[in-house]
Write a structure and sequence with these properties.
mainly alpha; globular
Amino acid sequence: MKNKILYADPKYRELLKSFTVTDSIVALLYYVLILAVYYLMGLALSRTGKYYGYAVNIILMLIPIFICRRLSSLGISKRNLKKSLIVSGLIGLLFLLSMTIIPGIIMKAEFLPVGDILNNIFYYLIIIALSEEISFRGYIQPRLYPLVKNECLMIIIGGILFVFMHYPFQMSMRGMSFLEYWPQFISAAPFQFLWHLAFSELYRLFGNIFGSTLLHGLVDLSTGIFK
């Protein structure tokens, strides 16, 4: 690891170069599908009060698995698994302690019941984090490489797409138009983009998405510990 900033797992680099423009087109069509489904899911929540996130995210996660069949092409691999989980777990726990748990205790916030916290751990780690990491970091983003032929540009474009992926659901859930939701979107977008860079870097370094999934889940769990 001569240059830690530019270093990426060799298998990850080989994977990027194995994709074709056809792979890029299919991945972008899948991205459009996600936007449409999330918009409809938010619309359903605003009109009926029913949340279909569990079923929707599982189905969306299974689509690229069925398309690719070779799980390693989605970053689903044991490669450097232990290292990736240790690094991601330490970063995630440090974030939770410093940004959520310790401040919450100091402010005497009330913890959620243990059952609710356990349910939130499952929800944020599997339904949200694993689903998004497979769908996005594992499937969509790497397949942008044939279009741009530059890894940094691929990650930047991927970050923009990742941030906008959250827009349709939040917009339709609130019953807002594109322009009405824009100020709230802008306030959250920089943080989502920065976390995207962290998740992408973990995938680059270790060649699997499980580290980024763990960190992703722990970051999202920060909203599911206190009442």
